[in-house]
Amino acid sequence: MDTWKLWAICMTLAAHLPEEQALRQACLSCHDTQSCNCSSMGLDFIPSGLTSKITVLNLAHNRIKLIRAHDLQQAVNLRALLLQSNQISSIDEDSFGSQGKLELLDLSNNSLAHLSPVWFAPLFSLQHLRIQGNSYSDLGESSPFSSLRNLSSLHLGNPQFSIIRQGNFEGIKFLHTLKIDGGNLSQYEPGSLKSIRKINHMIISIRRIDVFSAVVRDLLHSAIWLDVRKLAFSVPEKIQLLRIMSSSFTKKISLKQCLFTDATVPGIVSILEGMPKLMEVEMKDCTLLGTGQWYKQIHANQSQSLRVLIIENLSIEEFYLFTDLQSVLDLLSLFRKVTVENTKVFLVPCKLSQQLLSLEYLDLSANLLGDQSLEHSACQGAWPSLQTLNLSQNSLSDLKMTGKSLFHLRNLNLLDISENNFGEIPDVCEWPENLKYLNLSSTQIPKLTTCIPSTLEVLDVSANNLQDFGLQLPFLKELYLTKNHLKTLPEAAAIPNLVAMSISRNKLNSFSKEEFESFKQMELLDASSNNFICSCEFLSFIHHEAGIAQVLVGWPENYICDSPLAVRGAQVESVRLSLMECHRSLLVSLICTLVFLFILILVVVGYKYHAVWYMRMTWAWLQAKRKPKRAPAKDICYDAFVSYSENDSNWVENIMVQQLEQACPPFRLCLHKRDFVPGKWIVDNIIDSIEKSHKTLFVLSEHFVQSEWCKYELDFSHFRLFDENNDAAILILLEPIQSQAIPKRFCKLRKIMNTKTYLEWPPDEEQQQMFWENLKAALKF
Q: Which residues does the UniProt record annotate as the domain TIR (predicted)?
């Protein structure tokens, strides 16, 4: 009995040895490097052989189901352990006993049905813990995190997560980020989060307002940034539950993927403006069901701190019916920064613009503003303090009208009107007097005129159709001309104070000394991805003569040129230039010559080794193979198809044909001269004739083996007839043939002559009668 037990143990161990060896091979890098990436390798267990050298272990996206006590025992210096997206459902109590230095543990998206404080007890250095996406419904009766004194970020929750109890977060005093996925959270015991004194960023996905209200009550003095997701503010009566937020010290509130209605907006706004320290409100990917018909005026009573409003991707189905927002005018005077991006804004009411007295930054990008609506939105008295305006990706088309609409904004110094469709621009425009930065990139302008204000310090006209740059801009310091069609540099004398210029992805060929004479202030030049004809002297000139400190030319590192030139902002001892960049024409000519020689060699080799012949033969062979092997009896028209060389036609046509076709009974022969179908491809004629004949006569001679078409006929006869193991081929040796005279491609002829009996034409007339008798007998058989 003991013998059987010993045998069973040995068999079990033997079965596991190949598995462990495979795991070691899969994560071979784990033994030699500090970072071990074993993700997406189909592993069922944590690989063995982990050493103390490893500091980062990535086992994500495998099939690991359990963590055993000995799996990580030797990896005592682990700083990061990534186990997300496995099938982990069980963890031994002492699995992390050796990981006292672990700082990041990711167990997200597994199958853990409960959490044990024992797992995390040894992890006193842990800073980041991710356990979301498992199957636990609660965090237990006590806190699983009580020993994690250094925890900085915690991400928990899942679709089954339904209850948070008092004491679940005991031991945590400070968190930089706390994220709770509580879409189905239905019960929250008051005081559960109160033990955490400070949370810089509180992220919570939740659906029930009453539960959210209970959470907020515990975060009144601890949450600096409250990030709420997937909450529907649709019932006005429930909004009253959030009145407690008016006492919150939160400085920033983000509302993402939330739902609002006309009936609930006033209550929410009233709560927000009552928060004493609130500085910023952010709304992203939200939905508003309504048209702004709010049932009461909203007054700003308490909040003197709110300065920033960010609205991105707000969906308003009936945006074209939206009101002029008269009810919120009193809230707007203190805003300094407003972003309303990708929200289908087609007009900002004049009264609303005039109310934004403190506004310094306005972003209305990716909306529907046109020339007329901009004129109304930027009416007299609108945005008096505005310094930065972003109108990119709108529907503006008249540059002159755009400048005129904004002319009265005397404090405006930065204007972004990129990705509009201006096309042609006029010669004269009006602009705000203090405008310093203008972005006209991707606006379809074919040329630049004096419409561009001369006060600019920064001009971006990238991605247009510019052929040249001839503007006089005496104050310009930065110029962006990327992705145009320029063939020469701008005149340096026209922009004497230029410090940085980007002219990459144009059609520049070279720089001349004259073009650089006035670029004494230049510190950075990006001229990569052009058509330079370069040289070492050229680079030395740029550095020594022009004095430019940093040049980005974008040449690959093949050709070396000694020059203390700064490339990509880093000072180097040599600049490496490719042969392609330096000798483009010569290289293209060389490539063309090599291609021509290669084709010529292919032609010569093909001719010498009959490549064309083999190609044609292959095509004919494929065609023949697709046909039935044996033609029906009713389609047989000839007793024999005669294959012979044209040089032997006298003997065939005047002697053999006479003997056979005038015999009694006569034989019907198929001759290519007489019986081939005119206009039909000769290969098809050969194949059809062989198929419609009982036999195939081969008249062999020195001329036969030199004939290409005889070779075709021999091959077709071979695989159409001999492969059927019959005697359909009859060989007539008209004259003796030396074996060395038969070309190598006639390998089938050699085989046939070695395996089949053939008839030899006798020169003696007395023996010729016997020859004819034997031939007729062969044809009848």
A: 636-779
